Amino acid sequence: MAKFYTEWAHFIIGLYLVQELFTGIKVGRIFYTNQGSQLLDGGMEVWQGYFQSIRPKLRKLMINVDLHATAFYERGSLIQLVVRILGKSTVEDLWRIHDRDRTKLEKCLKNLKIFVVLRFSRHRFRISKLTNTSASSTTFEVNGQQIDIATYFFNTYGRRLQYPFLPCVVVRNETYLPIEICNVVEGQRYMRKLNERQMADMIEFTCQPPQIRTNTINQGIEILNYRQNEYMYQFGFQISNDMVITQARVLPTPTLYYHPASKEDTFIPKDGLWNLKNKKVATGATLGSWACAVFGSERDYPIGTIQNFIRELVNTCQDAGMNIPNRNPPILHCNPQGGIENSLRQVWVRAGNSAKSKPQLILCILPNIGGILYAEIKRVCDTLIGVATQCIQSRHIMRAIRIYCANVCLKINVKLGGENSFIDPSQIPFITQRPTIIMGADVTHPAPGEQNTPSIAAVTASMDAKASRYAASIRIQSGRQEVIGDLAEMVKELLKTFYQTCGRKPERILFYRDGVSEGQFSTVLNEEIRAIKDACMSLDGRYKPTITFVVVQKRHHTRFFPIDTGIDGDRTGNCPSGTVVDSTIVHPFEFDFYLQSHPSLQGISRPAHYHVLLDENGFNADSLQTLTYNLCYNFARCTRAVSIVPPVHYASLVCRRARFYASGENWSNPDTPEGVGSASYCVVKSELLKTMYFI
């Protein structure tokens, strides 16, 4: 019944806004307006939108209103859009379009709606492709004679093309239109992946302090003007324009442990942040066999500069508790343009010969823009050689900063099997009292616009009683399939690894699942939980550990604002780390809660939404909330509480890394041709899967 009411209320609100009020663009439950829009790099512009959704609550319905922004094609003439997409200054710079630019342009313009005004008549079309030749060279037959596009338009419409050197767009029935006569239809979303600069501009546009965001949302509520919705009035709905006030509490911060030799071996972080000062890692790894690969010339990266950086890095790692007997690893300069696999194999051999033992790590110095190179290094070392890598951008080696080296130290230590810190065992009794495995799962899908590209599923699982060390399992599956198809085998692999590591089978499983929408809850509940149980039964017919299955949602529109930022807020005006809400705005009868576990850096913090689908371990709200929050202090590669529970965070990192394992893909360039899904995916070396190579 609740579902019926919410769907009907969505219909009423949407009908009112579309028919009588809103003049912008409606996409699903979001209404976008070009008021206050801002240009992005590459011919796009970002529009402000207002998200709204009806949520069932105890004895009433609530409307969730939030801000949302997305990229649209820049309105105006198509020729100016082309100039901006290709990063040119003027139209004259388009005199010669190279094949790569043509491919980029065609991919960006495909299916774009345009309009043309000819002889006082307006015609609308959709672009299918570009011609390979210019308007003055593209010909077609008229009355048995060949004529080029430029001449045809002059003869037919009396219009002399100003830029006949440009290609034409091809629309329906192989109709050719010069780019300069076309205009972009306003309000078309850009559905492809944004590049780094566009993303930076988007973040700058959307990043608002809590107080400003509150004011903007209230302005949106005035625009939406629910009180004037006659349809809702006729159905007896009354809507308040005020934000709801709910009870919240701040969970206590856990105690962290470092090595007993540290000056501060136990401490309680403040505001979700701390650093490595006066601390040594709980378990320091030994790094004896390693080498440094510098992807660039010795002229650009002098050997002395590299040695100074390595010296500072080694000193920082040793001060933090690592053991590095080989302080002067071999340094090799490599060509960043090609032959990456051969270069890495040579570096690997040099490392082994120098230390007379199997190499443990390759330190890679990369040019500041090295997305393709980074992906190839990870593919080769993870799947072909089987050695951990640590990549560093070259700008950091010119002036070695100790705080940066400390952050690198955290990553290297766990990649080699060390342990940075752990939570007071008495504060995570669910894990420490009985053998327990914590699992996290995620599925990543192809970027918008990518066709025939698979989805990647990953599961990570804790391998000790402190939930500090994790192993991983990866699968490739059909594109945009959310349910993990081979989950039973993945869980089976990780249960075996847990047994091999700890010598006992886990008696309890706490499974955190990311990326599942509410509409998929029943499917996941039926299929994935059954797969976990099947995995346990396949190991031993009598093996039936108790399972708690929790969905973690990050992509939602619930935000919290402290009533008095001076008293209840943190330094950014957000709610403090550890804020949990489990009343008023949660589901009326299911087990869910919101947890804002991380300290905010900028803008408004987004809490994670945890929804329990199955609980055979008898958690109450406080015990699960506290355990989840405490685990957020156990993320290995930083000294801050993170926004989602670490096993899910690790699974996302594994999925992201696995994207690099497809041969033949251009990872830094979103403008490569479609159809990359046919590439074959390499398999991570089994010895690496048992380590935290993905950090």
UniProtKB/TrEMBL annotation:
Residues 77-186 form the PAZ domain. It comes from the Eukaryota. One of its GO terms (molecular function) is RNA binding. Pfam families: ArgoL1, ArgoL2, ArgoMid, PAZ, Piwi. Residues 361-663 form the Piwi domain. Coiled coil: none annotated. Belongs to the argonaute family. This is Piwi-domain-containing protein. It comes from Rhizophagus irregularis. The lineage of its organism: Eukaryota, Fungi, Fungi incertae sedis, Mucoromycota, Glomeromycotina.
